[in-house]
Amino acid sequence: MLYKERRKLYLKHRARAKYRNISWLFNYVTWWKKWCESGKWDKRGKKRDEYVMSRPEDKGPYAPWNVRICLAGENIREAHFDKNVSEITRMKISRSRLGMKFSETTRKKISLARKGRPTSLGYEHSTEAKEKMSLAKLGNTHWLGRKHKPEAKEKMSLAATRNVSKRNRDEKGCFLPKL
Fold first, then answer.
1. Residue 16 near residue 62, CB atoms below 8 Å
2. What Cα–Cα distance (Å) separates residue 162 from each residue in 8, 40, 171, 173?
3. Mean pLDDT across the chain, nearest whole number?
4. Helix ranges, the chain (H)
5. Could you give the CA distance from residue 129 to residue 11 in angstroms, rounded to a whole number?
6. Quick count: other Cβ atoms within 10 Å of Cβ 67?
7. N or C: which end of the chain has fewer CB within 10 A?
8. Half-sphere exposure of 100 toward its Cβ, with a 13 Å CA cutoff?
9. Distance CA 102, CA 114 (A)
10. Is 108 inside any structural domain?
11. Residue 51 falls within a domain, yes or no?
12. Tens digit of pLDDT for each residue in 1-44?
């Protein structure tokens, strides 16, 4: 990584500290030296398995004697250790995570953790809610009331003819099965 890019990251880190009202006692050289000594510069980032510059218990300034390079997940656990979260906050966190995409390994871990657990825990939908859900699933709702634009139709037609011309035919002109 070039000096200019590293310098930009240093200034960004310093600006974030200033925005959060945390005093900053690093200069570029001491900041870079701290990262070099750790040997974790290439693994630096915001994700749980990447490294960050952390202050113990999030107290004190960003200074060479008051920071350590650790995993972001470790820093998050330390920040949230022994904190009670209200039910409202839990609901907000849950809502914010809806629709998240997980990696294959994460999905397998979640699946293993849920094995043998009953779902819904006895929750029963009202008859009114069941009727609404039933009506919502009726009929063809796919592309209903929508039409392709002429340009899109032309592209689809060209793609279909290209794909057909690429396929092999036997002596009678019939398509051979794909292998």
1. no
2. 49, 50, 20, 16
3. 84
4. 3-19, 28-38, 72-80, 87-96, 104-114, 127-137, 150-166
5. 55
6. 19
7. C
8. 11
9. 15
10. no
11. yes
12. 688 889 999 999 999 999 999 999 999 999 999 999 999 988 99
CA gap 81, 75 in Å, rounded: 10
| Residue 126: both structure tokens together | 């009202």
In a domain? residue 175: no
Q: What is the number of structural domains in the chain?
A: 1
Contact 66, 56 (CB under 8 A): yes
CB 14 within 8 A of CB 26: yes
* Per-residue model confidence as pLDDT tens digits over 10-19: 999 999 999 9
pLDDT on residue 61 = 93
Domain limits for position 44: 3-80
Distances (CA, A) of 13 to 25, 32, 54, 71, 79: 12, 12, 12, 17, 19
Distance CA(86)–CA(94), nearest Å, equals 12
Residue with tokens 């279909």: 160
**Residues 10/32, Cβ–Cβ less than 8 Å:** yes
Asked if the structure places residue 154 within a domain, the reply is no
